[in-house]
Amino acid sequence: MYSGLKALKEEGEIQIEMEEEVQCEKLRDFKTGEKAFKCSQTKKTYSRKRTQKTGNRSYFTCQQCGRSFTGKGSLQVHMRIHTGETPFTCELCGKSFSLEGNRKTHMKIHTGEKPFTCPQCGKSFRHKVSLKNHRSVHTGETPFTCELCGKSFTLEGNLKTHVKIHTGEKPFTCPQCGKCFRHKVTFNAHMRSHTGESPYTCKLCGNSFSLKGGLKYHMRIHTGEKPFTCDLCGKSFRLKASLKSHRRVHTGETPFTCKLCRKSFSQEGNLKTHMKIHTGEKPFTCPQCGKSFRHKVTLKNHICIHSRKN
């Protein structure tokens, strides 16, 4: 998701005004305290004025962030970042954009057009940057490394998202229940729990999902696809997370620790279940006799007692 949104932004900018941009280095005059900019092309320094002139060319500078452009029109387009203006609207869904290039890129969602094809595996993409990111799957390249734990990523955006684990940052807050999330895609999915929206429907069985990824993983039930294989025992899984959890059987790793009694678990779900011992929570109630249980499986076994009696 992240890479798709980033692609819309990056390609639109590349298509229009960013190619005309002059990179300027922010400086400050230590005598006057006045902010200034150093042009990377001419190596000359300018005061922060609306228009900068060098030779026969004029540079138009944004008064809000200091970026400079060779054309007045490019500056006007850039200003939409600050004003929030989105004059280009999709006639099919009503979504609007600040750049015409971004609208054209968005239209591929409706047309299904995916003009960028991987020469190695044949997979196609709507955005050139998505293809570029995908190719790292084949090369195994992970150039973006976390300075805190050493984990590396194929995408810079994935690294930025990962760092939030260390900082504890959860910038996306639900206005209805106050729950916070690290990722916008998770936040959007959560919001659908309030609205009940599940726009992604399986054409084979009719099950619907709030996330596109949920539908993708569900389809593997029908196809039988299990693309993630354990290199130690050969067992295969539908989900990468399932393989990751399974590997702890071999490694003995128990990364999920109870803060109250320090008991540790290989699965986060097992920790959550364990916590009910401390809280006394018994959320699973028998509809026939009212007896409550900590675990769903215990309730299921208990219901069999009533069935045998009947």
From TrEMBL:
One of its GO terms (molecular function) is identical protein binding. It is found in: Nucleus. Residues 60-87, 88-115, 116-143, 144-171, 172-199, 200-227, 228-255, 256-283, 284-310 form the C2H2-type domain. Its main location: nucleus. GO terms for cellular component: nucleus. Keywords: DNA-binding, Metal-binding, Nucleus, Repeat, Transcription, Transcription regulation, Zinc, Zinc-finger. Belongs to the krueppel C2H2-type zinc-finger protein family. This is Gastrula zinc finger protein XlCGF8.2DB-like isoform X2.
